[in-house]
Write a structure and sequence with these properties.
The structure holds 2 protein chains of 2 kinds. By secondary structure, chain A is of the alpha+beta class. Chain A is built from 15 helices and 16 strands. A 9-stranded mixed beta sheet of chain A has the order 2-6-7-10-1-11-12-13-14. In chain A, strands 5-4-15 form a 3-stranded antiparallel beta sheet, with no helix packed on it. In chain A, strand 12, helix 3 and strand 13 form a beta-alpha-beta unit. The mean pLDDT of chain B is about 95. The chains are: A alpha+beta, B alpha/beta.
Chain lengths: ~475, ~475
Amino acid sequence: MSKKYETVIGLEVHVQLQTESKLFCGCSAAYGAEPNSNTCPICLGLPGTLPMLNKRALRFALQASRAADCQINQFSKFDRKNYFYPDLPKGYQISQYDLPLGYDGRITIETEEGETKEIGLTRIHLEEDAGKLIHAGSVGDSAHSYVDYNRGGVPLIEIVSEPDIRSPEEARAYLNALKQIILYLGISDCNMEEGSLRCDANVSLRTRGDREFGIKAEVKNMNSFRAVERALAYEVKRQEKLLDAGRKVVQETRTWDESRQETVSMRGKEEAEDYRYFPEPDLMPLEISDEFIEEIDDSLPELPLEKKHRFQEQYDLPAYDAGVLTQSRELAKLFEESAGKYDDAKEVSNWLMGEYLRLLKENEVEPGQDELNGEKLAELLELIEDGTISSKIAKEVFEETFVSGKAPGEVVEERGLKQISDEDELAEIVAGIVADNPEVVEDIKGGKDKAIGFLVGQVMQETRGKANPQLANQLIREEIEKH
Amino acid sequence: MKIYEMTLAGLIEARDSKRIKPGEILAAFQTRTEEVEERVRSFLDRPRDLAAEYEDSKNGKFAGIPVALKANMATSKLTTSCGSSILEDYRTPYQSTVADKITGSGGVIAGKTNMDEFAMGSTTEHSAYQVTRNPWNLDHVPGGSSGGSAAAVAAGEVPCALGSDTGGSIRQPAAFCGVVGFKPTYGVVSRYGLAAFASSLDQIGPLTRTVEDAAITLNIISGVDPLDSTSARIDHPDYTGKLDQDIAGMSFGLPSSYLEMDIDEEIRNQVLEAAEKLREAGAEVREIELPPADLALAAYYIIATAEASSNLARYDGVQYGTRQSGDNVRDMFVNTRSFSFGPEVKRRIMLGTFALSSGYQDELYKKALKVRTVIKEKYEKVFSEIDIILGPNSPAPAFKIGEDMDPLDVYYTDIFTVPVNISGFPALSLPAGFSEQGLPLSVQLIGPAFGEVELLQAASGLEKRLDVPTLAALEKGR
């Protein structure tokens, strides 16, 4: 981090709302359909057609606004943003200008130093998405382009932050926190690759202590959170060099070139468009009652940060654990179900953060798409606790339950995985191993106590992990005494 | 009386009492149209055989009634060109709500009528296709922009037509052609499927030969429409409900300052004569003060063009309509719109774009919205004191075809019609007589918001006392 300059970042995030139908017509809003199959005269903007507001989209947008602590403009309206582009069927986008649904909100992030920080939200507004152009060749020299209007009219919320973000890392933390809240609300899948979450950034530098903002550049086309972080880091360095050289930052739009890992100038401010916003006369103004806002507030789930703090208190978990477990609503739910049935919450947490997350990654699934539930995890932990199986065997059982959903007890029974705790049976095996490894026995006798671990390992191998390790350890010592 | 000479009410009555069949009605109007259309040129597109369009199964109020629709209303069959070459031969894959209501009650779409391009104009000469003539005098224009609909009714080609009124586009051609033209309160008739000129001002309404016919038609085409968010969520009454009730005791306001403005002497006298007739009928007529008409006109031309500049942005050659190619997409947009829009449309797009531009929007568009609110409030105040306003409609009778007029002078002719679009109130153009030249003269009646029933009652009462013919003979050889 530069000592001389302070980084100032503001983010504009577009999130596609996961409604069944589009914002102003009955067409499906699903991703990935045959080009132009999810279209109708209304979303194609044919002459004489009129928009009808999707109430569910309004509800989702209000939920997002309230989850981000926004005030609500109870008298709100839609406006037309006018510009010509082939993917914009009406020649204007129905958006919101001076009376956005939500304003003056905040998202709390945790910095790398583990401190919390509030990032202000200027506004959250509801608007329709444009279609998509597919160029024959590159944008610059393609002879023709195809237009797919499936995306045209899909509901979006635009979330504009205040210039409160002070580093690329904070930007990423902000995006993570925002995404987590939206996933908790279940109003979008936030899939950046499919474009259901898009992010543009405004970046500027100012000399530390200055109150005035520096000249900003807008950065677009970042296709992952990691790309956002990298593009911002690049941009900060680029501007730093300019300023150090006594040159000025140009106010412009720059695009992130992922392959070259740099930002490239797109267009300058002098070409900035005048969108001629004016109130959309085809839609009535929105009047949002106190009762509706109250109902929205009541419908909000416990949000990630609240949940994290509660986990820390209620289950006495370290902050790190609570953070990981509240990453997703499903994971948090699984934790609470398990911890409700098994006393040692930290043990539950260890299994979920370790084995469970590993298996999710290996199987490329999200929490909730596997077969584990709280009852089964609690059962498994009981089996470990009462000595029926070893922790090592438990991993095998866990994996089987994760995949097939079979109860742990059943798996242990079926596979004969019960721990050998019968002394006589185990003593016999131990005697054989000790006899087979005289050098190791000598080592141990000579004071290399650690070597006993090798013998325990041999016992475990012989019993395919079923031996009770503590018992094996004890029996080995007894056997060596005899020699 | 020949079938085409009958009013809509007369036709419905004769059909219901089995004196004529739907097929006969349609055939008679088809014959009349074939006789006079070459001279009047009302239609841009019409079915070859009207009777063949009739479906027996739809046995509603309009069974067998031919209805002409302005060419800016989407219909599943004929073209919807909006009088523009940018939509030459354009057919919509959907139908407007009004067209659905007409055909749903047994009516037959008799054709799509000529209009000023995208409803911008006062003579129908701004059509990209043809000049429609005034059936009362073929050297004169029928008015506009719903000139084709007005001419078709006056010529007896249809008993009823629909027009759209953004600043007088139903009432002024109705006045020029000597028929009844009715603009209902904004929101009474659905705009779904009406190619927009200025969304907050556009309203569909009937052009007919009598006030009763206008009321009957409004009963068919009005209604709450889930497809139009701006359609009024009201309980629609029977609009014919008070037609026969006496107007004695009703109070009328006469905006005397309007009559002192630059208007044709014959029209001024016609308005005063109508006032006299109302008094004779036992109604009260008193002088009222209306907000300055020139302010309403200025606000209108800013709001209407601003909305139009946005509404017409969709005609860019990408999806449908005429496309002119270009080296890149920007050139394609520019070439398409430069080549295919007519001069009046371009003028208004330029005006509206300017009015919305940053730096000018506060001085123009936003100020116009404020003026609009003030005008609406002043009209509401007037209606707390009287029932109906009586006044002039067009300040002059029909112009000659090809008359070279300054666009601003043409805009001025909307001065008495635009205030009700600005306020959203209902207004009706009622035939009141003829000029010395034999051109129709009219008066305008204005009612309060959703006061259609009383407005129609007043108009019907006055109509009976004026007793003006509304069908042009169009004898051959004249």
